[in-house]
Amino acid sequence: MSATIQTKPAAAPLPGGASLPRDALVSLRGVSKVFANRVMALSELNLDVREGEFLSLLGPSGCGKSTVLRLISRLTNPTAGAIEWRGGRPEIGFVFQEPTLMPWATVFSNVYLPLRFRGVSRREAQGRVEEALERVGLAKFAKAYPRELSGGMKMRVSIARALVLRPPLLLMDEPFAALDEITRIKLNDDLVQLKVSLGATIIFVTHSVFESVYLSTRIVVMAPRPGRIVAEIPVEAPLPRDEEFRLSAAYAEKCRETSQALHSAMEGMSLA
Ligand SMILES: Nc1ncnc2c1ncn2[C@@H]1O[C@H](COP(=O)(O)OP(=O)(O)O)[C@@H](O)[C@H]1O
Ligand SMILES: [Mg+2]
Known about the structure:
With 272 residues, this protein is an alpha/beta fold. It is built from eight helices and nine strands.
């Protein structure tokens, strides 16, 4: 079912990201990832993430999207290849599909957590927690508990928690996949606004064509077995975007193009 390879030693990293393209924040060069069970999650991936872009990784389950995020955030190491940063590895925010909130703690305490781990006192953290809650539209919910919130609101708390350290790079792994469509559209709209106001670089994993086209400035389409990049689609429409873009011919055309790329990526895949 899964491809296997002979593992190669990791290439030596180049010093200080000197060879990176000028606008690259991080570059993956010939990155492969083979798990202990010999599953080849990624094969010789080359990807430059540009400063300030909203990049979506789009592809079917198992094509290595989460593995790319985990490699970039150093939750796991590449088997071969190198990951290079321009100017050193920055603070990184990570949002997962599940909001993973502490149910016994208030919204404030949940968002405060990363600062608490850094030894920042509650009092010192107050302004930054409030700012993060403001950004996700939950300023009034600091004292609420997760059980009092809808699924969409819990995800907003999770995003606020990722933003509280003001990361220049935000990684989002299918954050809206478990939400109903109306909530998802609203969160997509708000994420576009958030992206514009933050200016941060965002790498967003999804298997929704519509979501990726609406949000992204660039889409990388991936295919499985082994995980690899098969297409790269720029989305030129300027940010912020709104309902007008969603109803435009340009959006429909981009969705068609992206959908075709995804279908060819899945050609030859057996039915799950
Ligand atoms: N810790 C792991 N151990 C073994 N195999 C793994 C592990 N994590 C992921 N995989 C496998 O690697 C491949 C890519 O996984 P993943 O990056 O999670 O894909 P995606 O996020 O695109 O669904 C899949 O075949 C998956 O089963
Ligand atoms: Mg995944």
